[in-house]
Amino acid sequence: MERRSENGADGYVEDIPYTFGYHPELDPARMQAVLRRAGVEPPEVAAACELGYGQGMSLAIHAVAGGAAWWGTDLIPSHAAHVRALVAGTDARLEAADQTFAVFCARDDLPRFDFIGLHGVWSWVSAANRERILELVARRLRAGGVLYVSYNALPGWAPMLPLREMMVAYAAALPADLPRADRIEAALRDAQMRVLRDPLVLEACPGIEAELRAIRHKGVAYLAHEFFNRDWAPMPPAQVAAAMRSVGLSFAAQADEAELASGARFRREYFVKDGAPPMDEGATATPCRRRDDPLRDVQILNDRLLALASCSPGMAWLADPQTGGGVEVGCSAMLMLAAWRSGAVDAASVARDAEAMLTRLGQHLVHEGRVLVETARVRAQLRIEARELLEVTLPRLRERGVLA
Ligand SMILES: C[S@@+](CC[C@H](N)C(=O)[O-])C[C@H]1O[C@@H](n2cnc3c(N)ncnc32)[C@H](O)[C@@H]1O
Q1: Atom of ligand 1 nearest to the CA of 101
Q2: Alpha-helical runs (H) found in 149-179
């Protein structure tokens, strides 16, 4: 089987691995619940596919905790290696390829999928890759099946378009032997200076300066993938809907109603493939699974997620065997659970070890929406949280089978 090439990364940043996010919209059970609330009868999901799965947190959690068989692909080989390591030794039915969309979408050995999802991909890849994704949906999503897609929307992102072009051009003009992270930092600094010096820009886009300041605090893994690919194509929702209509998909529901209400520039949407499933396709060839020991698999994965949390910033989710999806425990709780898993038994030692991890990761403790800066306050707050974790949260997680 051809591995990855055929036009390679096609303008996508491939030398910096992505962040460790989990995206609940990719959970088939959540998709079904959202569609039902919207008055749409959702499909059963036995075979599912995630395109551009990144570090594979969602893919691993859904393949291990849920009942569907999963396929997926991502360009970056270390992403594929990561998700394979997360599920190793479990019963998960998962094929995590490291093929480009050009190769994966042309494969003729894929099943008919009931659910295809792509989070943070559509606006960040080339037009040719969007076409390939649509071809895959046309050929491989069964009638009645669901597509989940998230994208950057217009007009919300319009002020950022020229600025991003400028930053990409600035970074590209720097010496090629400068590490990408340094080129990104220099481009952001330059953009900030230009904006500050340009009253016309400040007047036309009052929020842009604050936006750039906020962006500069994000890690390079996020920045590289969000803003420094060759392609960045925010679109009006009507344009996305038209692309989906061209392959027989109708809009079904917003995946995140709360975010939409706040006027977000990032949209998450479900589309349903038109037509009733033909008799031979309705019963899918990949039955939902009954496993021998589902709790064991989830707990293997969750122990790995806790180990990962102690060295990777921003992790907040574990797999939940009761729902088949993720359960959000929060970033500081993840670190405290990691400390507990490594042998800390009481609140004082859990808090102390979590504080050391926060420092090592360069993360801040957030309480009631505010970053705590004074060491004494951080310590006191961690103590409170550690006590609650050990007395309330941990017993609940164990009762649900999330942790052994
Ligand atoms: C912004 S990241 C999102 C990752 C993940 N879905 C998430 O939200 O955490 C986009 C992902 O798409 C992958 N990707 C980009 N172009 C691709 C291509 N042509 N073929 C396969 N994967 C690609 C990248 O490697 C990257 O992991």
Answers
A1: 20
A2: 160-173
